[in-house]
Amino acid sequence: MSQIFLKNIGLNGVTKGDKMAKRVVIVGAVALGPKVACRLRRLDPEAEITVVDRDNLISYGGCGIPYYVGGDIADIEGLYSTSSHVVRDPEFFRACKGVKIIPSVEATGINRQEKKLDVRYLADGKTETLEYDKLVIATGATPFRPPIPGANLPMVFTVSNLHNAQEIKEKIADGQVGKAVVIGAGAIGIEMAEALTDLWGVETTIIEMADQVLPAALGKNMSKVVENQLEKNGVKIILSERVERINSDEASRVTSVETSSGTMDCDMVVMSAGVRPNTQFAADSGLAVGRSGALLVDRCMKTTDPHIYAGGDCVELRNLVSGENMTMPLGSLANRQGRIIANNIHGRASQFKGTVGTFCIKVFDMGVATAGLTSAQATANGFDPVHAIVSQPDRAHFYPSAQLMFIKLIADRKTRKILGIEAVGGQGDAIKARVDAIAPLFQVGLDVDDVCVLETGYAPPFASAMDIINNAGNALDNILENLNKPIDVIDFVEKFKNDEIRVLDVRDTIEAEPFVEKYPDRWLNIPQSELRERLNDVSREEPICLVCGTGARSYECQTIFIQNGFTNTINIQGGHAMIRIIDPEFI
Amino acid sequence: MSQIFLKNIGLNGVTKGDKMAKRVVIVGAVALGPKVACRLRRLDPEAEITVVDRDNLISYGGCGIPYYVGGDIADIEGLYSTSSHVVRDPEFFRACKGVKIIPSVEATGINRQEKKLDVRYLADGKTETLEYDKLVIATGATPFRPPIPGANLPMVFTVSNLHNAQEIKEKIADGQVGKAVVIGAGAIGIEMAEALTDLWGVETTIIEMADQVLPAALGKNMSKVVENQLEKNGVKIILSERVERINSDEASRVTSVETSSGTMDCDMVVMSAGVRPNTQFAADSGLAVGRSGALLVDRCMKTTDPHIYAGGDCVELRNLVSGENMTMPLGSLANRQGRIIANNIHGRASQFKGTVGTFCIKVFDMGVATAGLTSAQATANGFDPVHAIVSQPDRAHFYPSAQLMFIKLIADRKTRKILGIEAVGGQGDAIKARVDAIAPLFQVGLDVDDVCVLETGYAPPFASAMDIINNAGNALDNILENLNKPIDVIDFVEKFKNDEIRVLDVRDTIEAEPFVEKYPDRWLNIPQSELRERLNDVSREEPICLVCGTGARSYECQTIFIQNGFTNTINIQGGHAMIRIIDPEFI
To answer: What is the pLDDT of residue B84?
Structure first.
């Protein structure tokens, strides 16, 4: 690689005007585009690198928009400045990076035969044709605006660029927004709802057509935790409904939204109903796109044209767990791909194999992280998913700052390969740490036994001796081996409320008492320490759910029941800790 | 596995009195021993399980001792209670776990031929012989007490069990300790020094015979960061010295310690000079031990006797990076091994492959985490280590709670395989997250390119779009490709102080000015944005170090120099951020 490099820069260091210089045109200057350009310049001083972008603001951290709206970032320039507070504008890229960026220019078509890109200057409509040796498509994606009446009213926003971010913040700061509706409970919808509620006290409602928040990332049990967290912090949530119309007054001011079940007053609507890749001009030139409309690329990020690369939000990536293609619009993946593309253009065969779908989000003071497939996605992909849910402190239970953490770990029943993980808890870095510790292993075929012995850093201020991630593996192993016969809290609560199931609480009497008093016929109590002597107090007939603080002792008790021939016990996964966070009103 | 299980518990659930019941004797009841016993009971209701321990206190979190001494944990019972505040004593194990633990009993010998363990009751000296089908050795390790005059004085402590933990705390609380000396700057020494200083205001000095703290875990550059952190918080550090004698007065009270270079007053000495495995009785029976004196075990944790298992601090583990055996006395590994041993005794071939040496420690408000080999260890193991050091915020630089993090990533030059990682920073969970994200991959042969594209969770409150772990990979790739020619800060500072090197500061003039004023002949300033036009201001002759805020821009500038034929530039890894943390007095 160093030899290639030395050859390309020439022996005498003179670089300009070499007629062999490679012409590289990059369409898009937000995340991946500038990364390709700058890396390539560092590899190749001769290349003629031109980046064009529709927008006049470039190289910004779009994922920071909710934190700008919510006030964590005071000044919008923070989102397009370097860590040393230099604005990343075309002059910065010219002077510091040796890269030419032309803003406010739109790509309109590709003549692949002649290797030419047609562009149009948005200021005056002039068109031009740029010749390329290599073309990079980094056009990203555009938020989807559901085609409903009122979708184009002035106070209906998407979260797509810094201009509308600024406009949203101005309207709120102006006092124009008392109530807002967010359409869609994906990551951006939730982050925007937090921003509106937390800083500005806007009465915010999220309306989601699925029956849970974060449907692409979480199973129902964990999504319920996030829903409670949002509601506890003042965000209203309406699930399983669609917004059918946005109403306005005679001055075109938003007044309300209508769903199938009613009307809700609001002054602003934020649409966060997913994104669509910006690939029309590329697809028109005959480049192959996938079902999502995003471009198909190989592991070198090359499209179906060997002279055209693409990456970021406008391509499909291979999901390394399911093997299927997916889009994964994240600035982090775009940046990593950018370096890969530059390497390949320069002649080094770097690869980007795909994604395991690692995802994280802050929801007020809670952290949520996931990777791989949800149980539903696993089933849809032909797996037979089995899961464990564990509750455990995120550090040694005796360490003062310990907080409860909840992990759902999913494996395929037959192969025992890990398919997914979902984690929530109060200390976000610790949540992310657990998911990051196993997600990169999904692609090498991590199985349940590997998780049981997974080695992660241990000291009481950071972890338990048997960390929650290992215990999640242990619990899943026990479930697969039929030593632990579990029920999820969300299913337990439903059954219990429908009077379909009894409970045996194996905690100490003082802890179980309030429940026993409230449900004298259906909530029994035998402390774990007495269970071996009192097995005959428990019927062998009808099903009975075992519960303790976290699901660990109730599992231990279940092994005693099973060893004594009981076939009717079911262990509540995550115990009272999980019940409290899933259904705080349970008692 | 479930079939084996069903067979073993019998079809009718009747389990007691079966004459085929397996007799399992476990020596040691701190971490691994109880884990084996409890797991085995859950797998096998029939087994006769007996655990013996020398101590009267059992099943405690020894790693929590410094936090008990330092006051984070008020009550010592916290260290041997469950998370639901039940004391883990023999009665608890009997009633809740179905396991018999006999405290205050010492193992004295093994008759392997007849499968018998000789024990002695410490209370009355009575002896007994326990027959076993399977024996488990979980005897742990004992702190090494260097054989120097005064080593056995009453105020000279090791940190080995709850009794001396309690005694240390009582002496301090009594006001008997104004000054303390800690011998050894490993993890326990540092944690104890923090405990003494932080809560009690004891004037504490650590004396270490190596030339750095944490010599087994960190390279010199990073160890300097930890030394500064300790000193900033009031702990005095003396390196490259041995304590040769501990002096006392006529009442046997400790008065001072003597080293080769002088005498230091103190009232208490804490010895934390490593541990020695408790394996004498086992070795005497002919079981094979390694160079460390710890027992040799296979992947099933079986010793050289097929009926004897061992695990925890008294065995050698395979280091999965070097391939060599090592001891790794950590409660976390012991617990994971405990489950493996129980599985194997029960007939399921579970494996524990070894360790990558993951380690973490809190040092006041700083987190330190490492895995794999240090550069010195890598060299000693026949590798040719190359490393990168990067400074970067631990979350998006525009996110308000972002703090700087420092990572050293080490790879083998020829194979590009990752050999080690060291990380330090202000937010410990975030530090641990980075190390945990790559350490489990060491054993599958992670290389530098894998780290460049490593997928970890991204959202601005938790990470940068190009996370520091990826940038560590990128930097190391650039170094291996000769695009980045680096120098460590610690080496730079030495050369600069010896007047051997000049600096080109590529930050803005206002930032560089104080340095330029102080060293007008040796500290040049050309802001990055002007460099392409001002290359001729820089001599091509003598070596010049490039510096910026973090090492990123100075690397970019170095590529410009190299592309223009300069061969004399050296990039200061980690930039001013690293200089400030390595040598806060530099300017």
So the answer is: 85
CA atoms of A156 and A274, how far apart (whole Å):
15
Instruction: Flag whether A351 is in a domain.
Output: no
Same domain, A250 and A315: no
Interval A182-206 mean pLDDT: 96
Contact B462 A362 (CB under 8 A): yes
Beta carbons of B456 and A436 less than 8 Å apart: yes
Q: Which chain B residue has its CA at the smallest distance from A35's CA?
A: B466
Q: Which one of B421, B445, B480 terminates a domain?
A: B480
Residue among A526, A529, A530, A533 at smallest CA distance from A569: A526
Q: How many CB atoms sit inside 10 A of residue B224's CB?
A: 21
Contact by Cβ (8 Å): B394, B359: no
Residues A231/A237, Cβ–Cβ less than 8 Å? yes
Select the residue from A337, A455, A538 to test the B interface by mutation, using most B Cβ atoms within 10 A: A455
Q: To which residue do tokens 């409860």 refer?
A: A404
| Cβ-defined contact of A353 to B453 (cutoff 8 Å) | yes
| pTM recorded for the entire structure | 0.95
Distance of residue A506 Cα from the nearest chain B Cα, in angstroms? 11
Q: Are residues B333 and B188 both part of a single domain?
A: no
The percentage of chain A sitting over the pLDDT mark of 90, rounded to a whole number, equals 94
Residue B548's closest chain A neighbor by CA? A84
Write the pLDDT tens digit of every residue in B248-299.
999 999 999 999 899 999 999 999 999 999 999 999 999 999 999 999 999 9
Angle between helices B220-232 and B489-497 (to 10 degrees): 80
Last residue of a domain, one of B273, B291, B319: B273
* pLDDT tens-digit readout, A116-142: 999 999 999 999 999 999 999 999 999
Same domain, A96 and A114: yes
Within the 114-153 window of chain B, which residues sit less than 8 Å (CB to CB) from chain A? Answer: none
Identify whether residues B138 and B27 lie together within a single domain.
yes
How close is the nearest chain B Cα to the Cα of A243, in Å?
A: 28
Q: Are residues A320 and A384 in the same domain?
A: no
Alpha-carbon torsion angle B479, B483, B489, B492, nearest 10: 120
| Pairing assessment for the beta strands B23-27 and B48-52 based on DSSP bridges | parallel
ipTM of the shown complex: 0.94
Chain centroid to CA B381: 19
**Lookup: tokens for B460:** 């601005």
The pLDDT tens digits for B19-56 are: 568 999 999 999 999 999 999 999 999 999 999 999 99
Residue A20 has pLDDT above 80, yes or no: no
Residue A286 shares a structural domain with residue A137: yes
Q: Which of B39, B79, B313, B398 is the best residue to mutate to test the A interface, defined by the most A CB atoms within 10 Å of its own CB?
A: B398
The CATH number covering residue A250 comes to: 3.50.50.60
Q: Collect all residues of chain A within an 8 Å Cβ-Cβ radius of residue B463.
A: 332, 360, 432
pLDDT for the residue numbered A7: 35
* Per-residue confidence (pLDDT) for residue B244, from 0 to 100: 97
Q: Which of residues 341-380 of B touch A (CB under 8 A)?
A: 350-353, 355-356, 358-362, 367, 369, 371
A339 and B432 within 8 Å at the Cβ level: the answer is no
Contacts of B429 in chain A (CB under 8 A): 427, 429-430, 433, 462
CA–CA dist A391, A552 (Å, integer):
9
Q: Please indicate, yes or no, if residue A151 is contained in any of the structural domains.
A: no
Q: Is A88 helix (H, G, I), strand (E, B) or coil?
A: coil
Domain co-membership, A136 together with A12: yes
Q: How many domains does chain B have?
A: 4
User: In sequence order, which residues have a C-beta less than 8 Å from that of residue B501 and are 6 or more positions away?
Assistant: B492, B495, B522, B543, B544, B545, B570
A74 touches chain B (CB under 8 A): no
**Given an 8 Å threshold on Cβ–Cβ distance, is A482 in contact with B429?**
no
pLDDT digits (tens, 9 = 90+) for B223-245: 999 999 999 999 999 999 999 99
Residue in B331, B474, B548 nearest the CB of A339: B474
Q: Which domain holds residue A334?
A: 2-60+67-141+276-346
Q: Which of B98, B458, B474 sits opposite A532 (nearest CB)?
A: B98
